[in-house]
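dumping this here before i forget
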Amino acid sequence: MNLRKITLLLPLFLLVFLANAQTPEQKLEQLGLSLPEVGSPIANYVKWKQVGNLLYLSGSGPDVYGKVGADLTIDEGYQAARETGLEIIAVLKVATGGDLTKIKQFVKVLGMVNSAPDFTKQPAVINGFSDLMVEIFGEKGKHARSAVGVAALPNNMAVEIEVIVEIKE
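structure:
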């Protein structure tokens, strides 16, 4: 193929590619997922804080209770982390003025798992969150992450996750 043909086809390729690109909202709809309402904080803090082009989100957790490895299986913990992911996306939507396309990238995730004393599979649990972010945001959803076990979480939540995301200026 000569350079002229490539030059003529490149704009057409880009147009087709961009037309098929899905927004995070479209991806949620395609997967049949809906975002929960964003509630008020349960104590004296805010749900997020913006510093420059970074959003720092407070910890969020699901309506799933108990210790993973005792009361809950790894799969139930995974689903709890996935549910927490939907809550975090809902907060991000509010924080970005209703436009999830403003998210440039996920930077850092801290996943805490309410764990039985001998439970050591915390990364497998927090994968529920990480997998969802990549499903919804693609490459932008990939992040640095810590997944740790803790002795207890507020109200006996199964997991608590906090994130740092970069938004477009």
